[in-house]
């Protein structure tokens, strides 16, 4: 690890910056993980697109449909592909708490920077804040790596700002990825923004969050690589300009992205989001595995693929994979 457990919060405050992606997992024709393709995508996002970090193998990465061994392998691949040049936040959440601890220790051992853990599922009984707190504390007490708490509706509820503030007091909780309402986001920033990194994951709000609300990192979304390619890196451009204080130039670059945002929204098939995203990235020069996804997800058909490719070409993002430097 790059920091001691006691220094986790300070390390994150100093080092979590910029727009972060949420990785997809390309599959081969037999639906095994395309390891070379995944490593290529990591290097492309770091070297070409300039992302500040990658949230690896979370819900967008179809981790729910992978074995524990596969999930561990993907974490190692991400670390090997970037070698510390892009921060790696490894998603280690699982219904079985001992699996969470096991995968988190693995992430720590192979060199990931942080782990991401979602609020736990309550089966057949109502959610209790005490139960959530004890869950995270039990895990935090048994690992040293920094924890990013993912607050979202996957398990049917959101954690309150009060509970998030309590979790922020745990020694190695370093960030909150908060998918919540604007008032609760504001309350969370006010309560614990001085202790941990508090992030909303919307790219559309990233510039205003960065320049007005003091959000130092956007953790995390596919948008930073969906909206960019080797041909156009406007997210990188407006992020860097804003961080240098060149606000007018940042807003100019941000506005140029609007046609791309609209085109993406028009062709993504909502019931086939993972497959649509993968095929879009394939058209922009990344490895998308022809849009292959594991069941129960459904893949985009030929007509949907044509619409995606046409949209990518119209946006000026169309490209083919280009060589990237191997990690030193």
Average pLDDT taken over every residue: 96
Strand order of the largest sheet: 7-6-5-4-3-2-1-8
| Cα distance spanning the termini | 18 Å
Let me know the largest β-sheet.
Answer: 8 strands, parallel
Structure notes:
This protein has helices at residues 8-15, 35-47, 68-82, 97-110, 129-140, 161-168, 182-192, 206-211, 223-226, 234-243, 247-256, 258-267, 273-283, 302-314; strands at 18-22, 53-56, 87-91, 114-118, 146-151, 173-178, 197-199, 217-221. α6 packs parallel to α7 (182-192). α7 links the parallel β6 (173-178) and β7. By secondary structure, it is α/β, with parallel strands linked by helices. The two termini are 18 Å apart. The chain has an eight-stranded parallel β-sheet with strand order 7-6-5-4-3-2-1-8.
From the structure above, extract its key features.
single chain; 328 residues; alpha/beta; TIM Barrel; eight-stranded parallel sheet; 44% helix; 12% strand
Give a quick rundown of the structure.
With 328 residues, the protein is of the alpha/beta class. It has helices spanning 8-15, 35-47, 68-82, 97-110, 129-140, 161-168, 182-192, 206-211, 223-226, 234-243, 247-256, 258-267, 273-283, 302-314; strands at residues 18-22, 53-56, 87-91, 114-118, 146-151, 173-178, 197-199, 217-221.
SSE order and pairing:
Elements lengths: L7 H8 L2 E5 L12 H13 L5 E4 L11 H15 L4 E5 L5 H14 L3 E5 L10 H12 L5 E6 L9 H8 L4 E6 L3 H11 L4 E3 L6 H6 L5 E5 L1 H4 L7 H10 L3 H10 L1 H10 L5 H11 L18 H13 L14
Helix pairs in contact: 2-3, 3-4, 6-7, 10-11, 12-14, 13-14
């Amino acid at each position: 690890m790059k920091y001691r457990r006691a220094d986790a919060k300070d390390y994150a405050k100093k080092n979590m910056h910029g727009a972060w992606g949420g990785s997809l997992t390309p599959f081969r024709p037999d639906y095994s993980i395309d390891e070379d393709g995944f490593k290529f995508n990591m290097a492309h996002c770091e070297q070409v697109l300039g992302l500040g970090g990658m949230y690896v193998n979370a819900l967008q990465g179809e981790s729910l449909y992978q074995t524990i061994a596969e999930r561990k392998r993907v974490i190692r691949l991400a670390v090997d592909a970037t070698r510390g040049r892009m921060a790696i936040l490894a998603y280690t959440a699982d219904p079985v708490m001992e699996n969470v601890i096991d995968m988190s220790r693995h992430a720590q051992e192979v060199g990931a920077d942080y782990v991401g853990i979602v609020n736990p599922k309550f089966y057949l009984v109502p959610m209790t804040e005490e139960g959530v707190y004890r869950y995270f504390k039990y895990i935090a007490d048994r690992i040293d790596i920094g924890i990013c708490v993912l607050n979202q509706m996957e398990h049917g509820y959101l954690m309150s700002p009060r509970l998030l503030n309590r979790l922020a007091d745990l020694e190695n909780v370093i960030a909150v990825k908060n998918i919540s309402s604007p008032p609760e986001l504001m309350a969370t920033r006010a309560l614990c923004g001085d202790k941990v990194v508090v992030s909303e994951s919307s790219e559309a709000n990233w510039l205003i969050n960065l320049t007005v609300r003091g959000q130092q990192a956007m953790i995390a979304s596919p948008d930073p690589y969906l909206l960019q390619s080797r041909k156009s890196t406007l997210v990188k451009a407006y992020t860097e300009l804003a961080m240098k204080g060149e606000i007018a130039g940042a807003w100019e670059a941000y506005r140029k992205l609007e046609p791309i945002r609209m085109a993406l929204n028009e062709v993504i098939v909502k019931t086939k989001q993972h497959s649509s995203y993968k095929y879009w990235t394939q058209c922009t020069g990344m490895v998308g595995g022809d849009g292959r996804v594991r069941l129960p997800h459904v893949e985009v058909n030929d007509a949907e693929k044509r619409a995606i490719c046409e949209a990518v070409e119209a946006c000026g993002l169309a490209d083919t994979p280009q060589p990237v430097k191997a990690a030193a």
